[in-house]
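Here's my example:
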Amino acid sequence: MDDVPAILPIIGPIVQSDRDILPASDRGAAMTDLSFAAKFQPEGPLLDRLFRDAALSPDTRARISARAADLIRRIRAESKPTMMELMLAEYGLSTREGVALMCLAEAMLRVPDRATIDALIEDKIAPSDWGRHLGDSSSSLVNASTWALMLTGRVLDDSKPGLAGTLRGAVRRLGEPVIRTAVTRAMREMGRQFVLGQTIDAALDRAKGQEAKGYTYSYDMLGEAAMTARDADRYADEYRKAIKAIAGACTHGSVVKNPGISIKLSALHPRYEVAQEDRVMAELVPVVRDLARQARAANIGLNIDAEEQDRLALSLQVIAAVLPDPELAGWDGFGVVVQAYGKRAGPMIDALHALAVRHDRRIMLRLVKGAYWDTEMKRAQVEGHPDFPLFTSKTATDVSYVALAKKLLGMTDRIYPQFATHNAHSVAAILELAGDAPFEFQRLHGMGERLHDIVLRDNATACRIYAPVGAHQDLLAYLVRRLLENGANSSFVNQIVDLDVTPEQIARDPFDALATAQAPVTLLAPHAIYGAGRVNAQGFDLAATDQLDLIFAPAMGRCPVPAR
């Protein structure tokens, strides 16, 4: 630690850039309650505040749960589950086979050659008991997949000696390319359930069927964080081409009724991190501003997708730098995604509303529950942070979602709420609370069709489909996130096809469930991951500006130790 002051002149400028780029008023908005303390605040007191903010009476909560249970009964009675819902129900993350498929999908992201793919398939498929799933699903396609996996596993696992074993070994060697091809095609078929098209033109064409029913779209060009400047340039070019193509499909004068696009900031800069804040503000802001101007000219919405919590404050700084652009005046299509599972979601919404008021803008805000939960929680443990940045249970996240939805419905003077959910209780809560406030629902392509078909038909609410677009090589990372979100046995998508779970159980009020939980499942706090005999090393959050300010304080005698 004694060496730290000596390197301050070298690395100090890295964390100073936003003070020179953003006006003082917007720096304040960009940092509002997104501090280190807010990021790792205790969950209990925050949930108590959300309970009070939601202020839902017992009668209101009972009506919401009853409405949600009715929706679930209608979903089960009026339509058939999709292949993906049936697949997730049969091979959820609570089964050994589901975990094997999950591991296979995730690991294939990094497989460099065919030999390794063969070894990977053997490792993940052969040991599992696929036969016990045969015939359990109501889908012939799922049962066919089970047959294929069962036979593949038997071939790969057969190591009996003698002539028969030798012959089977030969079949095994000859069959590996076939097995590899079959598994790859199976992953592709699963991906097709989630991806609208491999190109934006193909996606626009495929979207026409749902648009005829009253849906509209937000297109997402698949791709993960850019690793190089060339990657970032390629993604930016894809976004430009997509906006141009989407503009040709706009038939309405309203941004709300036209299709839109979602962009990922980390795909547009190879060093999208706090340590490179000066480069991000100087190099990324002009790119995002140009894309926003192009979207404004096309009269479509442009949403900035949410990412990891370490990037939350940085994303808000980029937004605060782009939103005041004079060329965006009068355009209501600038959008931001907020994750309800984050402990700072409420302050983030407040900061965005304050920016919209200050610059006389109307913005769109898509409220989601979140897609990086497992990664964020493990990172907090590995880094030795004082607590978790997210809520530790699905029930707590559902409470946060409803409370934040009510907050948004009170901000429609400057914010157009977009509620992305596949959960019948969340949908019922919004319908109960919205009154005459303008808003729209959103769902993922391939998910929640039956729920939103019913809601669209009964309530004439607007609904937008978030539709990924991209080739197979860009698909797997996205697919893994969807499987993780929906493969758990606590997820709505998983429970809706499990007839052993009653509609009333699925639609239970999360406020009541949280308040009456007898023995809530708790994660090991970051300091306690090694058990009672050893305390985890305590780390610094180098993505928190206020922590960096303490580290680089001129009067610093030693590095500050964050409180647990």
